[in-house]
Amino acid sequence: MRFCLNVDHIATLRNARGETQPDPVTFALLAEQYGVDGVVVHLREDRRHINERDLRLLRELVTTKLDLEMAAVEDIIEIACDVQPELATIVPEKRLELTTEGGINVIDNLEHLRSTIERLHNSGISVSLFIEPDINQIDAAAEINSDFIELHTGVYSNAETEDEEFDELERIRQAAKHAKKLGMGVNAGHGLNYKNMKQFAALENIDEVSIGHSVIARAVMVGVEQAVNEMLTIIQQYEIK
Ligand code: PXP
Predict the structure, then answer these.
(1) Following DSSP, what letter does each residue of 87-133 receive, concatenated?
(2) Is the peptide bond before 22 cis (omega within 30 degrees of 0)?
(3) What is the pLDDT of residues 84-93, one digit of tens each?
(4) Is the CB of 152 under 6 A from ligand 1?
(5) Tell me, what's the pLDDT at 93?
(6) How far, in Å, CA of 117 to CA of 128, rounded?
(7) Does residue 121 carry a catalytic annotation?
(8) How far is CA 84 from CA 8, 204, 223, 233, in A?
(9) 212 C-alpha to center of ligand 1: Å?
(10) Ligand 1 pocket check for 99: Cβ under 6 Å
(11) Cα(66)–Cα(32) distance, integer angstroms
(12) Catalytic (active site) residue 42
């Protein structure tokens, strides 16, 4: 299972003072040196964390893989086609949300997403759709030629009882298996942390996890190297080889 690090919250910290530090680009490059498999950023309409300068620098400097989370809106699609990340992950975006609140409804937005995927493909960019672990949504993603899905793990991460956690993990397990059968790659993310990754890392059919807040929060306390290493160690220790 690959581990991609979302560095948006380094930019959040920088933006709190409108200064240049801490720099999300420097942070991402350090994280790469310590072993992450890719760098993830979400260019939001309100630019509340990373901005275009960060994105373009990351494009020049990231040597692993750049995953751009983005809403399927015109100006961001144009930026994506120009910047050429290895992967564009399409997410729903609400202006007032604190963070992405759930998966995109592929079924309700089928034709718009189909044409967005086609445009990104024509620019040579692979596409992932951030969706709930729901079989109908997965079928719709395959129908419009998505290369990957990213399963929303928010319900799993927020589970309050062991039963709830078990049920959601099972739903994710079945969803990942189904997506693989349809030929798509499977990523996952949202709310994954040093505790809930132990069980999660043992799931089959998940190619990649996208983790931000927990690792950034840990890095503030213990440094980038240790925060990244601790997550890599959990994945290596618990994944089924
Ligand atoms: N995947 C997607 C699509 C997201 O929107 C986010 C949050 O930016 C993440 C993964 C990472 O979530 P977290 O910061 O809770 O680890």
Answers:
(1) EEEE----TT-SS--S---TTTTHHHHHHHHHHHHHTT-EEEEEE-S
(2) yes
(3) 999 999 999 7
(4) no
(5) 77
(6) 9
(7) no
(8) 18, 30, 30, 31
(9) 6
(10) yes
(11) 11
(12) yes
Residue 165 belongs to what domain range? Answer: 2-238
Residue nearest to atom 12 of ligand 1 (CA): 190
Q: Give the span between the Cα atoms of 22 and 26, in whole angstroms.
A: 8
Listed in sequence order, the residues at least 6 apart from 4 whose beta carbon sits closer than 8 Å to its beta carbon are 36, 37, 38, 39, 40, 65, 67, 187, 208, 209, 210, 211
Distance 36 CA to ligand 1 centre (A): 16
- Whether residue 218 has its Cβ less than 6 Å from ligand 1: no
As given in the structure block, the two tokens for residue 216 are 């950034």
The overall pTM is greater than 0.85: yes
Is position 190 annotated as part of the catalytic site?
yes
Ligand 1 atom closest to the Cα of residue 215 is: 16
Instruction: Give the CATH number, domain containing residue 51.
Output: 3.20.20.70
pLDDT at 241 over 90: no
CA of residue 229 to ligand 1 center, whole Å? 19
Number of domains into which the chain is organized: 1
Nearest alpha carbon, ligand 1 atom 6: 190
d(Cα 55, Cα 173) in Å, to the nearest integer? 33
Cα(210) to centroid of ligand 1, in Å?
6
**What is the pLDDT averaged over residues 207-224?**
98
